[in-house]
Amino acid sequence: MAGLSPDWKSNPLTPVDDRRAGALWGLAIGDALGAAVEFRAPGSFEPVTGYRAGGPHGLNAGEWTDDTSLALALADSLGEAGWDLNDQVRRYVAWWRHGEYSVNGRCFDIGNTTVSSLSRFEQTGDAYHSAVRSEWACGNGSIMRLAPVPIRYVDLFPDRIEELARLAAESSLTTHANPQCLSACRYMAVVLAALMHGLARDEVLAPDWDILRRLRASEPLHPAVDEVAAGSFRERRPPEIQGVGYVVRSLEAALWAFSRAADFREAVLAAVNLGDDADTTGAVCGQFAGAFWGWSGIPQEWRDGLARSDMIETALRKLGVRSPGR
Ligand SMILES: [Mg+2]
After folding, report:
1. Model-level pTM greater than 0.90?
2. From ligand 1's centre to the CA of 159, what distance in Å?
3. Is the model's pLDDT at 235 over the cut of 90?
4. Which of 141, 167, 273, 321 is deepest in the core (most CB within 10 A)?
């Protein structure tokens, strides 16, 4: 399947690049759309239709939260240091302590698991062993920032998906070492890379996708994650579908929104209008939707209205992508 490998270095405006850019733009836009209704119960707010000021962090319309900050830190690390987990976490600490990679120079919306893991890293300097390992620490904090990994390593698909999955799991290990988090990142990275290559959504999300079978054969997915990969998001609907912080429900909600949508707009609005952890459900769904419909499939008013989009552009350049149309 060598024909799928993109030659993005010499031809940076191929459709593959459009989709790689779309994954990171989609992450940030989903985050920004959801930020205004984070922590709100489903059905308790006027449905989101576009950027809106307010929310628990008092943001301006189009501003994004920790999901995007951590993705930008991860992208920066991949671009500057290659694959170096300690460097990844040092950049997360720079966000936490000094507000680097933030839309407004402040660290806000940081998750409990992330705080605990970064605190321990400051003491040990060992990103492989500093993450919280409690069985309860299974939040969505590593899937929400994942896109830079499949963007940077997209050419590991399809021949070396085991390696792509391993990198995705390691990217989670730094803060979210729970097996469900690692497994969710393995599955999600392979799906994102496939979508960036232009594979059909129904093929990629099918429970018997041949690539998924290979992934399971290399190392079984955690049963709770595999239930999602096997299509739980097609059988359920709200209120069973929940945009909450638990990584499995979060992934399921994002796939529910993505799999049934006609376009990028419909996907991310369905995700954020689940309320609760709306910014992160939006960020996870936005990665899938952006990887599938591409940068060019994102409504222009959302691209234009995104705060500090220069930071997204910088991160993409470091990942070897130039945003199409700019
Ligand atoms: Mg957030």
Report:
1. yes
2. 34
3. yes
4. 321
Burial of 103 (0-12, 13-18, 19+ CB in 10 A): buried
- Residues 6 or more apart whose CB falls under 8 angstroms from that of 22 comprise 264, 289, 290, 291, 292, 293, 294, 295, 296, 297, 298
| Domain membership of residue 269 as a residue range | 24-318
With cut-offs at 50, 70 and 90, classify the pLDDT of residue 143.
Answer: very high
Give residue 9 CA to ligand 1 midpoint distance, Å: 32
- Distance in Å, CA 248 to ligand 1 centroid: 17
Tally the domains of the chain.
1
Domain membership flag for residue 97: yes
Q: Which residues have CB atoms below 5 A from the ion given as ligand 1? A: 65-67, 109, 279
Q: How far is the CA of 286 from the centre of ligand 1 (A)?
A: 13
What value does the mean pLDDT take over residues 47-75? 97
> Is residue 87 included in any domain, yes or no?
yes
In a domain, 208, yes or no: yes
- Total count of residues recorded for the chain: 326
Asked whether residue 235 is assigned to any structural domain, the reply reads: yes
Q: Which CATH number is 177's domain given?
A: 1.10.4080.10
pLDDT of residue 134: 83
Q: Is the peptide bond before 12 cis (omega within 30 degrees of 0)?
A: no
